[in-house]
Amino acid sequence: MLLHSASTVLADNGWVSWDVTSLRKLFWYDTVTGLAYGSIYALIALGYTLVYGVLRLINFAHSEVFITGAFAGYFTLKACGFTPGVVPGVGAGEIVAYLVLATGVAMVASALTALVLERVAYQPLRKRGAPSLAFLITAIGASLAIQQAYFIWRGGNPEPSIQLVVKQPEIKIGNTTMDNIQITVIVAAIVLMLVIDTFIRHSRLGRGIRAVAQDATTATLMGVNRERVIMLTFLIGGAAAGLGASLYIMMIPSALVYNGGFILGIKAFTAAVLGGIGNLRGALLGGLLLGLVENYGQTLFGGQWRDVVAFVVLILVLMIRPTGILGESLARARA
Amino acid sequence: MKSSVFVLGATKRNEEEVVLIRRSALAGQSRENPEGNKSVRNSGVRAAVVITALGALVLAGCASKGKKDNTTPPPAGGSSGGASTPSSAPTEALKPVLPAGDGKATCSSGMQLAYIGTINGGNAALGIAERNAMQLAIDQHNAANKGCQVGFKQYDSEGTPDKAPGVVTQAINTKSIIGVMGLPFSGESKATGAAFEQAGLVHITASATNPGLTTNGWKTFFRGLGNDASQGPAAAKFITGQLGAKSVCVIKDDSDYGIGLAKTVSETLGSAQTCTDDVKTGQKDFSATIGKIQQAKPDAVFYSGYYQEAGPFWQQLKQGGYSGKFIGPDGVKDPNFIKLAGQSVAEGVYFTCPCVPADASATFAAQYQAKFGQPPQTYSAEAYDATTVLLQGIDHGSKTRAAELAYVKGYSADGITKHMQWGSNGELAGKIAIWSYIVKGGQIEKLNAI
Amino acid sequence: MTAADTTTKTQRAPFGQQIRDRWNGLPRQQQWLISIVFIVFLIFLPILNPAGITTEPGTDFPISLFNASRYALIAIGLNVVVGQAGLLDLGYVGFFAIGAYVTALFTSKDSSLHHLPYLACVPIGMAITMFFGLILGIPTLRLRGDYLAIVTLGFGEIVRLMADNVPALKGQVGFQNVGHPPGTRDNGLPIFLQSDGKPWYWLTIGVIIVVLILVGNLERSRVGRAWVAIRDDEDAAEIMGVPTFKFKLWAFVMGAAIGGLSGVIYAGQVGFVNNQKFDPVTSILFLAAVVLGGSGNKVGVILGAFLISYIPDRFTSIAEYKYLIFGCALVVLMIFRPQGLLGARQRLLTYGRQAYQRIAGRPEQLDTGAGALSGDSRSGAMGGGDL
C-alpha cells in the first residue's frame, strides 16, 4: 500500500499488497511490537491452555475474564484519584506502587471471575457429564452475556485512558527502539510464565494439576482432589489473564471497551493452539510467534489484513499440525 | 465572525429584518424571526422552483466572497435589501430559525414526526445524540405553540440495514407521521430510501454522508449536512496551504464516511500525499499504521473517520514519537476526541468541519446540556436543524405528507449550523462553508473559515 | 424460554411427551392435514395481524414475520450441520453473507459484474456457497469438535473481513438496489416490494417447506443415518465403515447451501448489502436459535429461530438486552435442558413407521423426549446428556 510502488498487485485493483520494502524497513519495529503483543497473547493463552489441559474444554469466556481484569485495574486507578487524560504529578516510585496495586486488583478480579464462571457455568455441566459441545455452547453463552453486560453498563465507547507511564525509548534495537512499556510488558509476562511453569512442575499442587491432566480418574483415585485442582487451574489462568489485561491497558490505554477482549481472546487461543494447547511453554512460544507473524503480516499485506493473517495462521496450523508446535502435553511435562 | 453570536432577543432585530427582506425578495419564501415578527407567509410550494433557480445565484455570490478574516462584520442593518446582497454567505452570521417558531402556529392535532435510527444498537451514541436533539426541538416547539402540538415517535433501527426496513415500513404505515428525521447511517439509509420514496414520506438525515445516497433519484431524501465532496478539498487546502504541510499521510477508516472523505482529500492533495493506510472501525491498536507513519515522516496526518478511533490513534501516534500535525474532519471534531486522546495529547490538533462555529448554537448547547445532562454530541445540532425544518412545515400548514415534502423542498432559512436549503437531488444547495478549529486548553476553538 | 427454566428432568415427560406420542400415533394423512391447517394459519398470519401477537407499533408485523421466517430457514440449515451431523459451526454467518453478496454482485447496478435476473442468483448463490463450504470443509473437517468450532469462527471472520477489505465488495458502502423476484402489481409496483413483507414472508415459508421436505428425505436416507452415527460417536461410526469425512462434508455443504439461500432471500428483501450484520455475534445468535429450539429437531429449531427473531421485535423494551438474554439462555439451557425446548429424539429413521407398527402395534414408540443423544465427552455430540 505504501506509495503504491513496491506492491505487486494480486488482483485487478490491488486490494492486497505485497510490500516487501516496507517490511524490510519496519522489520525491527514489527519485531519489538510483535514481541510485546506476543507476551500479552501468551499470558492470556496460558488460561486457555491450563483449562484445556485439565478439562479438555475451550474456555470461550476467557476473553471476558481478561476484560474484567482490565476494567478492575482501570477503576482501581480511578478510585485512587487519577483522572483520564491528566498526567499525574506524583513521583515515579508512587506511580509504580499504584500500578502494582492496579495490577494486583486486576489479577484478583480476573481470577475470581474465572472461578465464578467455573462454578456457575461449567461445574453443573460436569456433574451431569454433559458432552463437550455443551460446555462450549455454555462458554459461548457466558461470553456473550458478560460482554453484553459490560456494553449495557459502559456503552460502546472506549473508556478515556488513564496513563501513568509515559512511553520513552530505552533500548535501541536494529533501526528502532524498545520503549519502557514494551520492556515492562515482555519482562513481566516472561517472569510470570516462568513462575507458573516452575509452580506446575515442582510444587505439590502443580503435580496435582499435571496428574489430573494426565488421567483425571486415576488421579482422583490417588487422592488428588479434582475439584480443587480445577479451581486452582481457573485461578491461575485468571490471574495470568489479569496481569495480561493490566499490561495490555498500559500498552494500549484506549483499548478498554466492552468487546475489547473478544478478538484478543481468539488470538490468544490461536497462540495456544499454535504452541500446542495444554502445553505451558507452548503458550509462551505460540504467543510470541503469533505476535511476530501478525505484525510482519500486517506490514506486508496492510493493516486491515491483520486479523485475517491470524485466522489463516490458525487454520494452517490446525491443518498441518493439529497438536501445535510443541504438542499437547501439560500432562507429559516432566517433574 | 465575533458578531455572529445569536441572541434571543431584540438586539439582533435589525439584522433579522434585513435577512427577512432579502430572503423574501429573493424567493418569496416566508420566514419568521424568533421574537415573533411574522413576515410574509407562504406555502412554500410555490417558492420551490424559484428558490432552486435563485439558489445557485445566491451561492455563487457567497463563493466569491470567500474571506478568511473572521472579524468581518455582517452587513449592517439598513443596507440595501433584496437581491443585490445575495449573501446567505456561510461566513456571515446565521439567523437561525428555531423550533419554537413564532409561538403562534396552529395546526390540527394528531400530526407526528418520527425519529428513526439507532437507539439501542452498537453505535447508539450517535443516534441518541440525534434523537435527543429532536426531542428537544419538538418539546420547545410544543411549549411555545400551544395551538400546535406535534407528536414525537421514535423507532429503533439498531443502525443496521437488516432491522431498518421493518421499522421504516411501520413508520410509513403509521399515517399520522408526516415527516421523519433519520436515518443516521448511510447503510440503513440506502436500505430504506426506496421505501420512503414509494410512500412519499420526507426524511432528513442528520448524519448519513455517503454521496451515493443522492444519486438514486429519490425525491424524499434530504441530507441535513454537507456531503464529503465539499469538505475534502477544503481540508486538503487547509493542510497544505495554511498549515504549510509538504507531505501528508491520509489515514482512513472503513466507514462509508471515512472512505468517501479520504478520496476527495487525496485527490486534492495530489503529490503532497506521501502515504496512506487503512484502519478499521473499532480498532484499538494502531501499531502498523504508526510504523508506516514513522517511516514516511509526513508533516501532517489527516485522519478520515470518527473520533472513537481517532482519539486512541492520535494518542498512540503521538506517544510513538511523532511530532507533526494532526487534522481530523467533523467526525473527529468532538469533545470525546479530547477525552479519548487525553487533553495534553489532543492539544494543538486541528479540525475541519462544515459547521459554523458554536457561537450560533451556544444557546442550543446550553439547552441540550440542561435537558440531557451532557453536551450535544456530533450531529446533535444537525438533527436539531432538520427537526426545525420539519416543524416549520407543520407550522406553515402542512397537513399531508405531500405538503410536508413540498415544504421541505422549498425551504430556505438559516438553521443553527448552516443555511438550510436543498437542491433537487436532496443535497444542501450550494457551497458549504468549511471552518477550521483547533484544540486549545482542552476546548475546541474556532480558527477561521477555509 | 420459561419452559427451559421450569422443565427440569424430573418433571419432563408429561405434557410434551403426551403431545408427541399422540402426534406420532396419528396416521400419516392426519398428520399432513393438521400440518396443512397450521401452514394455512401461518400464511394468513400477517393479514390477520392479531392483537397481542403483532409487533406493531414497533415494527411492521409482516416484515417482522419475514425476518422470523428468514431466521427459521437459517436455523434449518445450521441444524443440518450442528443438530444432525454434530459439527459445531460458529461461522455459519459466513455462508449467509456469501449468499447475500453473490446476489448483490449479480443484480445490483453498483456492481460491475454482468447483471442477471434475481432468480438466476438462487442457484448461483447456492452453488457458490456450496463451493465455499467445500473449501472450508475439506481442510478443517478432520478436526474434532472444539477445534472445528474455532476454525469456523475464524472462517466467518475472514469472510466478513474480505467484504471489508476487498474493494470490489465495497465494504460499508455496499450495494444498493439489489434485485428481487419478478412480477408487478396492478399499480405498477413490483410484487416483491421492500416495504411489503407479505410476499417475502410467503416466499420464505414456501422455501422452508421445500427445504424441510428435502432435508427430511435426506435425513431418512443413508446420508441421514450416517450423520446420526457421526454425531453420536464418530469413532464408532468410522469403525463401522461410515466414511465419516465424506458425510461430514455432505452436511457442511448442505448447510452451506441453505445458508446461502437464506442470504439470497435476505439480500432481495433488504435490497441493500454491505458488511454490517455478518459479525460473530450474529453467528452466535444463529447458533442460539438452533440450541434454544432443540438442536436436531427441525420443528424445534424453527421455534427457536422464531423466538430469537420475534421476541426483540415484540418486546422492544428488552431489545437492548437481547444478546444478554440469549447469552444467559444458552448457559441456563445447557445446564438444565441441554436438548433445547423441543429436543431431538432417538428414533428409527428409515421404515421406522413400519417397524414400530410391526413390533409395538402402534406407529411409533419413542424413547424419552430427553434429547436422546447421549454422548460422552469424546463423541462430539451435542444437545443431550446422559442425565
Compact description:
The complex is a heterotrimer of chains A (335), B (450) and C (387). Chain A has 335 residues and is an all-alpha fold.
What is the secondary structure topology, with strand pairs?
The complex is a heterotrimer of chains A (335), B (450) and C (387).
Chain A (H helix, E strand, L loop, with lengths): L19 H36 L6 H18 L12 H37 L3 H23 L14 E5 L2 E4 H23 L1 H11 L1 H6 L4 H26 L8 H16 L4 H22 L4 H15 L15
Antiparallel strand pairs in A: 1-2
Helix pairs in contact in A: 1-5, 1-8, 1-9, 1-10, 2-3, 2-8, 2-9, 3-4, 3-8, 5-6, 5-8, 6-8, 9-10, 9-11, 10-11
Chain B lengths: L12 H15 L17 H21 L46 E6 L6 H21 L6 E6 L7 H10 L3 E5 L4 H14 L2 E4 L15 E3 L4 H15 L5 E5 L3 H14 L3 E6 L8 H10 L3 E5 L2 H13 L5 E4 L6 H7 L1 H4 L3 E4 L8 H11 L7 H16 L5 H9 L2 E3 L4 E3 L13 E6 L2 E7 L1
Parallel strand pairs in B: 1-2, 1-3, 3-4, 4-5, 6-7, 6-8, 8-9, 9-10
Antiparallel strand pairs in B: 10-13, 11-12, 13-14
Chain C lengths: L1 H5 L7 H12 L2 H21 L12 H24 L7 H16 L10 H23 L4 H21 L31 H24 L1 H11 L1 H6 L4 H27 L9 H14 L4 H17 L7 H15 L15 H9 L27
Helix pairs in contact in C: 3-8, 4-8, 4-11, 4-12, 4-13, 5-6, 5-7, 5-11, 6-11, 8-9, 9-11, 12-13, 12-14
Structure commentary:
- The complex is a heterotrimer of chains A (335), B (450) and C (387).
- Chain A has 335 residues and is an all-alpha fold.
- In chain A, 70% of the residues lie in helices and 3% in strands.
- Chain A contains eleven helices and two strands.
- Chain A has a two-stranded antiparallel sheet.
- In chain A, strand 1 (169-173) and strand 2 form a beta hairpin.
- The longest helix of chain A is centred in the N-terminal third of the chain and has 37 residues, at 92-128.
- Chain A starts with 19 loop residues before the first helix and ends in a 15-residue tail after the last helix.
- Residues 1-12 of chain A have low confidence and may be disordered.
- Chain B is built from 14 helices and 14 strands.
- Chain B has a seven-stranded mixed β-sheet with strand order 7-6-8-9-10-13-14, with helices on both faces.
- In chain B, a hairpin with a 4-residue loop joins strand 11 (412-414) and strand 12.
- In chain B, helix 4 (164-173) runs parallel beside helix 5, helix 6 (228-242) packs across helix 7 (256-269) and helix 9 runs parallel beside helix 10.
- Mean pLDDT of chain B is 77; it is low at 1-91.
- Helices cover 63% and strands 0% of the residues of chain C.
- Chain C is built from 15 helices and no strands.
- Chain C has helices at residues 2-6, 14-25, 28-48, 61-84, 92-107, 118-140, 145-165, 197-220, 222-232, 234-239, 244-270, 280-293, 298-314, 322-336, 352-360.
- In chain C, helix 4 runs antiparallel to helix 11 (244-270) and helix 4 crosses helix 12 (280-293).
- Chain C is globular.
- The chains are: A mainly alpha (335), B alpha/beta (450), C mainly alpha (387).
- Chain B binds chain C through residues 120, 155-156, 158-162, 165-170, 172-174, 186-187, 190-192, 194-195, 198-199, 210, 212, 216, 254-256, 259-260, 278, 280-281, and chain C through 55-60, 62-64, 67, 110, 164-165, 171-174, 176-177, 189, 193-197, 266, 269-277, 313, 316, 319-320.
